[in-house]
Amino acid sequence: MARAPFVQWARPSPNSTLEKITSDFVKRAPISRKVMNNDYEIEYILENKKFNKSLFLPIMKVIALFLFSIIGIGISYFFFYDIISNNKIQENKMLWIFMFFVIILFVISLSIIFNLKNEWDSSINFKEIITRKSKEENYRIIDDNANLVFKMSNIKKEKKKNMLVIYTQISLWTYGDIITILCDENRVLVNSKASNNQIFSYGIQRKNISKIEKLFS
What we know:
Blueprint (H helix, E strand, L loop, with lengths): L13 H15 L9 H11 L7 H30 L2 H4 L3 H20 L1 H9 L2 E4 L4 H15 L2 E7 L4 E6 L8 E8 L2 E8 L9 H12 L2
Antiparallel strand pairs: 1-5, 2-3, 3-4, 4-5
Helix pairs in contact: 3-5, 3-6
């Protein structure tokens, strides 16, 4: 009886097995935002006119600002109602000092109420400015005039992606702003937000965007 031919099976090496497992895991693993391709982020912004990020923190920020403003207005109302109805100013001259701080609290609270939408937009949305110019022309106009329009502490340029990120200096109203500008055909997308050290920006972000609009008006 003829013997069956002997076949020797190749045993996979530990290294090749590990490489296969690793490559399969990488294919299935979700893409982290930290390593996400920057081109994808730019395409998302150009298409949707907003950042590709979770809405949780912007929502919490708006809710916190709204609650602060309501509490501030409530404290101001009851303070003034009490001293006026009971004529306490004549009894206690020190109330003028408290009145000064309550007035400041009231003004800040009103400012927050009127600028809540701007704070939301600065966290998420980009403003679209119609220019009727090419990408390169839009980029050149902003690049040539940025230092004249803003007091910059730094500017990052990505000419291949037609993008500029402007960092403004610390001022009386802000700890510095971050202005992201994407240049596209016939339009420019602009987002301006306060640095991470500041929760509220007193409408400064709207003024920053207005300065960019004036470059194309």
